[in-house]
Amino acid sequence: METIRLKSHIGNDGLLRFELPTAMRNVEADIVIVYSVNDEPEEDPAEWDAFIDATYGILAHDPIERPATLPKDVRDELL
Q: Which residues contact 2 (CB under 8 A, 6 or more apart)?
């Protein structure tokens, strides 16, 4: 048994068309289709660029600092 994950589009005619990338030819196969509808609109790259531009450097006045590493004998024991 093989699992193949594909992303496809259902056209206005309500038909789903796909090609299976397999070397098998002229055989009977049991096919199981599980689908979920993607309700989220595709992201616009320009919106992501605008978000980065708006937030880049926002913590420049209050940078995040990493505390010094504790000595080995003070660390909690791993379970």
A: 22
